[in-house]
Amino acid sequence: MGKAVRMISSDGTLTAMAVDSADIVESAREIHRTSSVITAALGRLLTGASMMGAVLKNEDDSVTLRINGGGPAGSLIAVSDSLGNVKGYAECPDVQLPLNSKGKLDVGSAVGTDGTLTVMKDLGMKEPYLGQIPIVSGEIAQDITSYFALSEQTPTVCALGVLVDKRTGSVITAGGFIIQLLPTALDDTIDRVEECVKDIQPVTTMLGEGLTPEEICRKVLRGFDLELLDEFSPVYRCDCSKERVSRALITLGKEELLEIAQDEKTEISCHFCNRKYYFTPDEIRALADSK
Ligand SMILES: [Zn+2]
């Protein structure tokens, strides 16, 4: 189970969230058998999505992040519900790349920089909210920061990190934080925040030292008096069902479904959790006839 907090400064000028997402990222790694660099890339995207989902207002709201920068990873997708529970996948989960010049997993090269980050929020309206920005670095935290600046006009600091065991590939620590200025921010608030985050340790280092998400918020924003708004425990969760898969199949259209019904058995796996669903020819024909 992940651990997350949302905090607000007592002067009402900013909010801060932080999450320990090691369990979530390890679940994703086990499901998708990701290589180390994709564990880091998908893990960062899931961690960011979880924090962005947890601020949604209504229970049925959701947010989807999709990043594709033309790199070998292909598209990476993460979906969060309003409690920060997430699911996701990478189109190419087994990409291997040499470490970058800093000796770190080269997430930027895996994702690529020639493409977009798309954020879709389903808020129960007729049309979902859609925001799209060009990728800045493919390192994901910077891209999410840029999304908030360009699409939501919200000054944001975002840090995300995943530390992978070099030998086994399993997740040692993972997490992140998002600091956002509120419209009530004072002229000097942004300067104070920039001063705070200038020499901040990587989030994986703070988690490795045993800091909780709340302690990370307080450490990063030293000098601000922070109050706890809420705590939550996000998990990796897929909400697929045979009914949902059926609805997706119906969108293929009658002609294609009748074609599929020729097969003795149809197997569909869920992209997010690899659960398999089986359909008989009769079931497929019934879908072809439904509206
Ligand atoms: Zn699923």
**Percentage of residues in DSSP E strands:** 25-35%
General form: globular
- Provide the spatial order of strands within the biggest beta sheet: 8-9-2-1-10
Number of strands: 12
Largest sheet: 5 strands, antiparallel
Small molecules bound: zinc ion
At CATH level 3, the topology of the largest domain is Hsp33 domain
Short overview:
This protein has helices spanning 22-32, 36-53, 107-111, 141-151, 189-197, 203-208, 213-220, 242-250, 254-260, 281-289; strands at residues 3-9, 14-20, 62-68, 76-81, 86-90, 116-122, 129-134, 156-164, 171-181, 226-232, 266-269, 276-279.
Characterization of this structure:
This protein folds into 2 domains: 3-232, Hsp33 domain; 242-289, HSP33 redox switch-like (CBS domain Like). It is of the alpha+beta class and 291 residues long. The protein is 32% helix and 27% strand. The protein is built from 10 helices and 12 strands. The strands form 3 sheets. The chain has a 5-stranded antiparallel sheet with strand order 8-9-2-1-10, with helices on both faces. The chain has a 5-stranded antiparallel sheet with strand order 5-4-3-6-7. The protein has a two-stranded antiparallel sheet with strand order 11-12. Bound molecules: zinc ion. Residues 238, 240, 270, 272-273, 275 line the site of zinc ion.
Tag the structure with descriptive keywords:
five-stranded antiparallel beta sheet, 27% strand, 12 strands, alpha+beta, 291 residues, 32% helix, 2 domains, Hsp33 domain, binds zinc ion, CBS domain Like, single chain, globular
